[in-house]
Each structure stands twice: as C-alpha cells, then as structure tokens.
Amino acid sequence: MKKILFLICLISTFNSFSQTSEKEDTDAIMAVLKAQRLAWSKNNIEEYMEGYWKSDSLKFYGSHGITNGWYNTLDRYQAAYPTEGHTGKLSFKINDITKISNNVYYVLGEYHIKREVGNADGIFMLVFKRIDGKWKIIVDTTC
What is the pLDDT of residue 1? Predict the structure, then answer.
C-alpha cells in the first residue's frame, strides 16, 4: 500500500511540473502575437508567418474564402500586401484568450493597420496549439 501511495504522489508531482499554467500559456501566446506585430510593422511577412503552423493543414479563412497551407497563406499575404506602404504599422487589441483544451486556445481580437494606401481595421479569431513546445496558429479567421 505504501508503494502505491508513493507511486501516486510521484506521478502527481511530475504531472504538476510538466504542465504549464494558463497564465504562462497566455503570456507565451501574447509573445507570439507581439513578435508578429513587430515583424509585420517591419514589412517582414516571412518573419510574421513564423507565428503560423508550417503545415499544409494550416487554415486561413478570410473575405476571399479558405486558404489551405502555410505556403499558400504566405503567398496570399505577399500578394495582398506587396509593399511597405501596404503592410504599414500593425496593432492588435486582444479581447479574449480562452483555453479550449490542454495545449489549445482561441484568441479573439481586433487589428488596426496604419498605412500609406489607407488604414485597415478588422476582427479575427485565432486557434493556437502548442506544437513541439512552441505556440503556433493552426486556424486564422480574419475579416
């Protein structure tokens, strides 16, 4: 009986150390969004794309329908924002970050782009998943 109790305590200890808190998760997700904001504002779309899951299973849903895959999403961004005058300076307002399950969150927010060709504003919902220890956007719905 003592061995069983010891084993349960040992497993519980390892589980509590291996899981991160929701605050740590949301802070890490916010760090990804900050890195994206800074990259976008430097007109570096490829660096901005580092926040996305580099997979053919990535989904981007916008006003022109669904774009599947990381490379197709990169191509879409590069076509829509061909110059620094188009990318401008990006800011976000994050309205909600909610845990869906272990290692998966959704983020609701607003974006604002100040730019030479006219400002752009809209809303988004992102699904983040921790993949290989890094938070990545696996679904992006932006309009």
Answer: 52
In this prediction the pTM is 0.86
> Average pLDDT, stretch 71-82?
97
| Distance in angstroms (rounded) separating the CA atoms of residues 4 and 55 | 43
**What DSSP string describes 69-134?**
SHHHHHHHHHHH--SHHHH-EEEEEEEEEEEEETTEEEEEEEEEEE-TT--EEEEEEEEEEEETTE
Tell me the C-alpha distance between 73 and 130, whole Å: 20
Number of H helices, E strands in the chain: 5, 6
Neighbours of 96 (CB within 10 A): 10
Q: What is the mean pLDDT of residues 97-103?
A: 97
Handedness of CA 46, 123, 113, 93 (dihedral sign): negative
Per-residue pLDDT for 53 more than 80?
yes
Please answer whether residues 49 and 73 qualify as being in contact, where contact means their C-beta atoms are separated by less than 8 angstroms.
yes
Q: How buried is residue 79: exposed, middle or buried, by Cβ count under 10 Å (0-12/13-18/19+)?
A: exposed
What is the average pLDDT value for the chain, to the nearest integer? 91
